[in-house]
Amino acid sequence: MAAVQKVPDIVVGRLPVYLRALQVMAAEGREITSSQELGERLGISSAQIRKDLSYFGTFGKQGTGYRIPDLIEHLRRILKVDRTWDMILIGAGNLGHALAQYQGFTPRGFRLVAIFDNDPEKIGRPIGPHVIQDVQELPEFVRAHRVQIAMIAVPASAAQQVADLCVEAGIRAILNYAPIHLKVPKRILVQYIDPAIHLQQMTYYLGNEG
Ligand SMILES: NC(=O)c1ccc[n+]([C@@H]2O[C@H](COP(=O)([O-])OP(=O)(O)OC[C@H]3O[C@@H](n4cnc5c(N)ncnc54)[C@H](O)[C@@H]3O)[C@@H](O)[C@H]2O)c1
């Protein structure tokens, strides 16, 4: 039996980008594409795209390209977004409000099911279609609804404490918007979104003229 090949993280990281581009093509009414066209749209070589997809089997036929709806379905299955993932949000501040209103989660496989905060002034208030709940109710909610994903949008000074609470409650994946590195057990998946980090990665390459 052939050994299962470990897919490099960098490849996994490109799959959602392919999926997003394919969904744009589908919305344009397109049926067929090629690794060349996808590569041109994304600034990635066609060979790289073919190699990335080859980790998951054979897609499309030589010379005829990929059927867009089929490749979308394959990628959705591979990324496990062929289902809906419930997630919670902690922090109902400026960013929390923006996230609560964001329409882009649902079509891509995610449903925000609860929002928590520790400010008595905010608890009980509506935010989008939700009512802000006391963060003390988080553990019970997570256990009862078997939620696996949390988005943290609290100040950096509170993020570790909130992450600990999430992990204890059974959360398995954290999207952390607070600009701080979280110490969590190895089994917990964490992704960081910090625009300043991305900006700093660009300023390294900018000239000194400014
Ligand atoms: N990644 C990004 O794009 C991005 C952009 C802006 C801000 N941020 C970061 O996101 C976080 C939130 O920013 P903001 O502008 O919304 O801040 P904010 O002050 O408007 O909101 C933070 C919210 O967290 C709540 N909170 C504080 N401690 C808590 C705790 N222990 N439990 C539950 N709730 C708690 C506060 O009551 C408040 O409602 C900050 O860490 C900020 O640096 C990230």
Task: Report the order of strands and helices.
Answer: HEHHEHEHEEEEHEHEEH
Profile the largest sheet. 6 strands, parallel
Which hetero ligands occur in this complex? nicotinamide-adenine-dinucleotide
CA gyration radius, whole angstroms: 20 Å
- Counting structural domains, the number is 2
How helix-rich are the residues, as a percent range? 40-55%
Distance between the termini: 59 Å
Range of strand content:
15-25%
Strand order of the largest sheet: 7-4-3-8-9-10
Mean pLDDT, to the nearest integer, reads 94
CATH topology of the largest domain: Rossmann fold
DSSP E strands, number: 10
Structure description:
By secondary structure, this protein is of the alpha/beta class. It has two domains: 9-78, Orthogonal Bundle (Arc Repressor Mutant, subunit A), CATH 1.10.10; 85-197, Rossmann fold (3-Layer(aba) Sandwich), CATH 3.40.50.720. It is 41% helix and 17% strand. It is built from eight helices and ten strands. It has helices spanning 9-27, 35-42, 46-54, 68-78, 94-101, 138-145, 156-169, 195-203, and strands spanning 32-33, 66-67, 85-90, 110-117, 126-127, 130-131, 133-134, 149-152, 173-176, 189-192. The chain has a six-stranded parallel β-sheet with strand order 7-4-3-8-9-10, sandwiched between helices. Strands 1-2 form a two-stranded antiparallel sheet. α1 (9-27) packs antiparallel against α4 and α6 (138-145) packs across α7. The longest helix has 19 residues, at 9-27. The radius of gyration is 20 Å and the shape is globular. The N and C termini lie far apart (59 Å). The model has no long low-confidence stretch (mean pLDDT 94). The structure holds nicotinamide-adenine-dinucleotide. Nicotinamide-adenine-dinucleotide (NAD) binds at residues 90-96, 116-119, 122, 135, 153-156, 158, 161-162, 177-179, 193-195. Keywords: Cytoplasm, DNA-binding, NAD, Repressor, Transcription, Transcription regulation. GO terms for molecular function: DNA binding; DNA-binding transcription factor activity. Modulates transcription in response to changes in cellular NADH/NAD(+) redox state. It holds the Pfam family Put_DNA-bind_N. NAD(+) binds at residues 91-96.
